[in-house]
């Protein structure tokens, strides 16, 4: 008995030639790969959307934190104003903020200088070692 798929008669697998079976397997593999790629695109689009929303929420939180920091600085100036003149309280807070900014800038510069050059030197050395090992194995096999 012959099966019919999409209006086309199909012979049972046991009656197909090897070439037909290989062609059928190739078509199925191609369809499987296309379907997997489509699924990956859909999944990445969904994850990208969620990541975008999350980044926006983090941005909003950062902006509010900056306003909070400004309010905390103003509170510090007002608190110092209780024991010092207002201008001196503002000057002290300003100097402290610039000192903290300077220390952070120096720490950041140190971290950046440690990251240069931006190449994965350990990975490059590992690949070179792998290539050398393969060359050595090929030479040894050629001698045998």
From TrEMBL:
<keyword id="KW-0812">Transmembrane</keyword>
<feature type="transmembrane region" description="Helical">
    <location>
        <begin position="86"/>
        <end position="107"/>
    </location>
</feature>
<keyword id="KW-0472">Membrane</keyword>
<keyword id="KW-1133">Transmembrane helix</keyword>
<feature type="transmembrane region" description="Helical">
    <location>
        <begin position="57"/>
        <end position="80"/>
    </location>
</feature>
<dbReference type="InterPro" id="IPR009937">
    <property type="entry name" value="Phage_holin_3_6"/>
</dbReference>
<dbReference type="Pfam" id="PF07332">
    <property type="entry name" value="Phage_holin_3_6"/>
</dbReference>
<protein>
    <submittedName>
        <fullName>Putative superfamily III holin-X</fullName>
    </submittedName>
</protein>
């Amino acid at each position: 008995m012959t099966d019919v798929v999409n209006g086309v008669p199909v012979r049972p697998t046991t009656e197909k030639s090897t070439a037909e079976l290989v062609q059928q397997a190739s078509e199925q593999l191609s369809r499987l790969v296309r379907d997997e790629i489509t699924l990956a695109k859909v999944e990445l689009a969904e994850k990208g959307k969620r990541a975008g929303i999350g980044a926006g929420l983090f941005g909003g939180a950062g902006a509010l934190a900056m306003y909070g920091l400004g309010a905390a600085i103003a509170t510090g100036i007002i608190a110092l104003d209780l024991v010092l003149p207002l201008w001196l309280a503002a000057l002290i807070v300003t100097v402290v903020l610039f000192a903290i900014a300077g220390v952070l800038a120096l720490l950041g510069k140190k971290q950046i200088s440690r990251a240069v050059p931006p190449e994965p030197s350990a990975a490059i050395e590992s690949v070179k070692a792998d290539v050398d090992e393969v060359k050595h194995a090929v030479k040894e096999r050629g001698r045998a």
